[in-house]
Write a structure and sequence with these properties.
alpha+beta; 387 residues; 3-stranded mixed sheet; Helix Hairpins; 5-stranded mixed sheet; 2 domains; binds copper (II) ion; 12 strands; 10 helices; Immunoglobulin-like
Length: 387
């Protein structure tokens, strides 16, 4: 009994309020459907489990060996056998009917109001907004990474695939899991009722940094979503001539542009991602400072204090705070600098840390580029203007 109590206590503390990935706290249409199914199934399975457990305890005590003679041996009890076949079958049918109904409701895509594509890649997610009438209208495709921004109260269809191994997309508060498989497109509907950040993580083991492959859905009310969208599409703003950021731009072209794209930056054609990264491109850094986490939503771009302001905001305050992006005062410069100088030290990229990658000349993830402090300063200044 003590053991049971201890297990229950541990399980229940896991359900405490501050658990952003709690599957028992649905915050969208489909997660609510799943929740409405998992409760009764859990209850039925719990009652059956309890009855079986009690029956075992009773048998163990009642018929334990007290040196009594072996009882009379009998064979078969048709009434009992038939009852014990029919009863579980009925329970399973009782569970199957609502399960199939829920699965069909979850697969519904006809009434989609906004389409977003995701690409899983070791170890981050690219999020692509294709041209469409949905999502309030998108005239030019654009991409971001790590944080998928969607309008609230909107039926969003996430179509996903993978550029390397199998990954799995899972935002527990909004819907169930969906494997993202190379060469296939899988869909999962996502809808958030309230503005806020909904955290999730890759749930299919995908290699060394699987545990560092996280993602977030950011829901903004439709007005704020329009603001966010317009900001993603604004033209490139070159740094002021002679500034540190301008030196950063040159450093970016020579060191980073072979993998990373900044839309509108003329990099003289050096971007040739296929040649350098294992799978396709690295995250697009055009609007890095409009997201507040980086490298597979694993590290914060905001200082702890500023992060709290966004994450703890009420639904009414949230949109405005999120749209502030990463200001110079709020930048978590320590982690960003450390990343630029030596990314694999923060997030394991390949098993042999002494080599850049497998012998075919390709590497996974971001290499350590051996930059000095000045270059890091320049690059941080340049990136800080990508907002
Ligand atoms: Cu993954």
């Amino acid at each position: 009994m003590l053991a049971v109590g201890a297990i229950a206590a541990v399980t229940l503390t896991a359900c405490a309020e501050d658990a952003p990935q709690d599957t028992w706290q649905p915050e969208g249409e489909n997660s609510t459907r799943i929740h409405n199914l998992q409760w009764p199934v859990f209850a039925i399975a719990g009652v059956v489990g309890l009855l079986v457990f009690l029956a075992i305890v009773w048998v163990v005590i009642r018929y334990r060996d007290r040196g009594q003679p072996i009882p009379k041996q009998s064979h078969g009890k048709p009434a009992l056998e038939i009852a014990l076949t029919i009863l579980p079958a009925l329970i399973l049918v009782g569970v199957a009917v609502p399960t199939v109904g829920t699965l069909m409701a979850l697969a519904e895509t006809d009434d989609t109001e906004c389409s977003v594509n995701v690409y899983g890649q070791q170890w981050w997610w690219e999020v692509e907004y294709p041209e469409q009438k949905g999502c309030g209208g998108i005239d030019r495709e654009f991409v971001t990474s790590g944080q998928m921004v969607i309008p609230t109260g909107t039926k969003v269809l996430v179509s996903g695939t993978s550029r390397d191994v199998i990954h799995s997309w899972w935002i527990p508060a909004l819907n169930g899991k969906k494997d993202m498989v190379p060469g296939r497109v899988h869909t999962v509907r996502t809808q958030a009722d309230e503005p806020g950040i909904y955290a999730g993580q890759c749930t299919e083991f995908c290699g060394l940094s699987h545990a560092n492959m996280r993602m977030e859905v950011v829901a903004l009310d439709p007005g704020d979503f329009e603001t966010w969208k317009a900001n993603q599409l604004k033209p490139y703003a070159a740094p002021e001539e002679g500034s540190i950021a301008a030196e950063g731009e040159s450093a970016f072209i020579s060191q980073c542009a072979r993998c990373h794209v900044v839309d509108g930056l003329d990099d003289g054609g050096v971007n040739a991602p296929e040649q350098f990264v294992y799978s396709r491109t690295a995250p697009n850094l055009t609007n890095l400072m409009t997201r507040n986490t980086f490298a597979g939503a694993t590290f914060d771009l905001l200082t702890d204090e500023c992060r709290e302001r966004v994450w703890e905001a009420t639904p009414e305050e949230f949109g405005e705070r999120y749209l502030e992006g990463v200001t110079p005062e709020c930048l978590n410069e320590v982690d960003l600098r450390a990343w630029i100088k030596n990314a694999p030290a923060m997030k394991p990229m390949y098993t042999d840390g002494t080599k850049l990658g497998p012998t075919d000349g390709r590497s996974r993830g971001m290499p350590a580029l051996g930059l000095n402090d000045d270059q890091a300063d320049q690059l941080v200044a340049y990136l800080l203007e990508r907002n």
